[in-house]
Amino acid sequence: MYNLLPFNFTRLSNSEVLVNELGDMIIAPNGTVDAVVNHSLPSNDLYKTLVANHFIYEGIVPPLIDVYALRLRTKKCFLDDFTSLHIFVLTLRCNQNCVYCQASSQNEDSANCSMSKETMDASIKLMFQSPSKKLTVEFQGGEPSLMLDLIHYAITEIEKVNETEKRTVTYVLCTNCFNLTDGLLELCQKHNVLISTSVDGPEWLHNKNRGRTDSYQRVVANINKARAVLGFDRVSALQTTSELGVNYPLETIDEYVNLGFHSIFIRALNPYGLASQNNDWKQYTERFIEFYKKALDYIVEKNKQGVFFVEEFAVIVLRKILTPFTTGFVDLQSPAGIINSVLVYNYDGYVYASDESRMLAEAKDYTFRLGKATDDYEKIVCGDTAKQCAKVWANECIAGCSDCALKTYCGADPVRNYSTQGDMYGYRPTSLLCKKNKAIIEYIISMIIDRGDEVLPIFRSWLL
Amino acid sequence: MIHRALNIESNDNSLFVTAQCNNKCVMCCQPPTQCDDIEKYFIQNIELIKSAPKGLKNIGITGGEPTLLGDKLFEYIRIIREYLPDTSIHILSNGRIFKDADYTHKLKDAGGEKLFVGVPLHSDFINDHNHIAGAESAYEETITGLYNLASEEICIELRIVINALNYSRLPQMAKFIFKNLTFVSWVALMGMEHIGYAIKNQSTIWIEPEQYSTQLSDATLYLSQVGIPVSIYNVPLCLLDKRIHKYACQSISDWKTLYLDECDKCSVRSDCCGLFATSHRIFKGIKAL
């Protein structure tokens, strides 16, 4: 006789997919779950697999309950050190005019939309109150490269404080690479700053999205310049799938391969800023899912031909499915990444729960404003707003997620729920974020079921 | 047990410290006895340690179950550390005693760095493991012991002796190891020696490497792909899928290695572990490559 441990299940590719709280996944024939819960499971090989993988156990207490506890702690260890990602929005000014801008950026010469030194000082002080031993300082905008003096000031101040704090600080500059000056690159070189940039796809597509005829040429030239100065792997790229770009998955991947990148992070548009004027999110989401599938298939083909090339969203999902480890990706976490893993210090002198939260603020919605940069740390991370979010930021306890088989691979996103559905709790049956995440995760699992021998060695090589 | 002087040229220098064991593994090559032999072996072994060449790379502590010596095991280790400060110590244990965190801590205190513990895992499935180990609570105790060893940062060699009762789950075991015992330093997948209990139980446990070739390949490649170092012991190259040749080791002690006449014609003989001279049965399918 055996007892059950918690697990959820779904049906995919003519199989049952059972997933436990640790993210361990078992592919089994249809009817397995019924047999498991009705205690009519024969003692065969599948029975042994279910016991060994913490789905069922014999006896009163699971013999490996301590291993189970430790593994659960490992999966949730992104919580151990609290906030590690600290985003500094230096300005809304920008030197490009992208069709899908999510950050409400302003003209290059706009006034009153850049961070003051006083706000920077207060923000740095707050950041160092985070208990995390590792701090990632991410400079964002607008276009942060327009704020060379402030970046220089921030790094100098942080280094000064860190002489006694002794944290491991990583700097990331999120830039469109449109105008990387020698002075900026020198600063990046001196302080080991990583460059995170973005290319949308082939030249014509990139230029069309960016509203300029010379964007691609300049961006590529600057990527190469940055690689030469900082090192080839110090420059990475995120892709954003515009409404036009969604038709060109293969061309987009080819572009990244040709530019010498070993990875791409395929991202959908977010319903913020200019992009929220898009009038048919449902249709876009469906087209994006198809885009993603085609792109991932194509990437797998590339790998089979001997080109090592990785899709980063798939890597995050695969790490959750195939390994006992955790991921540090703030958008697929439960409890959610907001506050727990990320804080945003905005140019306006306020601290927000996430990047998306400050984008909402540009539409005059201050729901996720945690407080002023000059406020006490406790008020920011344990204040009323944080408490409201905390009630709904674990997908283990929200309807439509708690019983989802993919729960351990996905995450909770109160900010997205609020911005698209009007409340932080959200409603999964019509949530487009749920639809998108579910479709992609299910597709990856289907690939494992249908083409395991072919794709698993490739997927595993992405996780090393 | 024959006592040989510790020899710097040998790949096997082990101290046999007791014939007693708290497991009764179905394939045990050194069936346990009940007699109180710890003192007898201690006196002999201390002489061996004192007369050992100073440059000795590796010294094994084996049995039986060495941890049945209790604190006397630490005396061994302290004496080895005194006379052979640079020699690695490789203890073969079923790992059950290390469920006691204090005992595990004392081991670390005595051994410091350059200490390896080789622990067998017989199956990912509790009842199969216990059945093969011949002891009821072996599985939980061994797994807890492995966790305690890891928390003391002691290097662990996880050993799987392949037999008819566990070969079919080798791929599942590999996954279990990666998910639950990620911290092991390496995994050794081992062919069985036909001696001791393996003869007595041959009808239920004996298996030819030809029969487990697929499972062994799958498990080996999986472990390698997820980044866990893996080695194959005691299976000659001609019985292994070519894809896993590079994981095979010269694992058989030099003093008991056997090559057949057929092996003289083999182009990879010098890389091959050969066969156990002590085995009463020779693997089927040996052919020159």
Describe this protein's structure.
The complex is a heterodimer of chains A (464) and B (289). Chain A is an alpha/beta fold and 464 residues long. Chain A has helices at residues 32-37, 45-52, 65-75, 117-127, 148-165, 182-190, 203-210, 215-230, 249-258, 281-304, 312-322, 355-362, 377-382, 384-390, 414-421, 432-463; strands spanning 2-4, 7-12, 15-20, 25-28, 56-58, 85-89, 134-140, 168-174, 194-198, 235-241, 263-268, 310-311, 342-345, 350-352, 369-372. Chain A is globular. With 289 residues, chain B is of the alpha/beta class. Chain B has a single domain (14-276), classed as TIM Barrel (Alpha-Beta Barrel), CATH 3.20.20.70. Helices cover 31% and strands 13% of the residues of chain B. Chain B has nine helices and nine strands. Chain B has a seven-stranded parallel beta sheet, covered by helices on one side. A two-stranded antiparallel ribbon of chain B has the order 8-9. In chain B, helix 6 (170-180) runs parallel beside helix 9.
CATH architecture descriptor name of the largest domain in chain A:
Alpha-Beta Barrel
Gyration radius of chain B, rounded: 18 Å
Shape of chain B: globular
Beta strand % of chain A: 15-25%
- CATH fold category name of chain B: TIM Barrel
Main-sheet strand order of chain A equals 12-11-10-9-8-7-6-13-14-15
CATH homologous group name of chain B? Aldolase class I
H/I helix tally of chain A: 16
Mean pLDDT of chain B: 93
Computed over alpha carbons, the radius of gyration of chain A is 23 Å
Task: Please provide the count of β strands of chain B.
Answer: 9
Helical stretch count of chain B?
9
The major sheet of chain B is characterized as: 7 strands, parallel
Our measurement of the CA-to-CA distance between the termini of chain A, rounded to an integer number of angstroms, reads 39 Å
Name of the CATH class of chain B: Alpha Beta
Percent range for β-strand residues of chain B: 5-15%
Instruction: Indicate the structural class of chain B.
Output: alpha/beta
Which stretches of chain B are poorly predicted, pLDDT < 50 over at least 5 residues? none
Tell me the quaternary state.
Answer: heterodimer
Q: Which architecture of chain B would the CATH scheme give at its second level?
A: Alpha-Beta Barrel
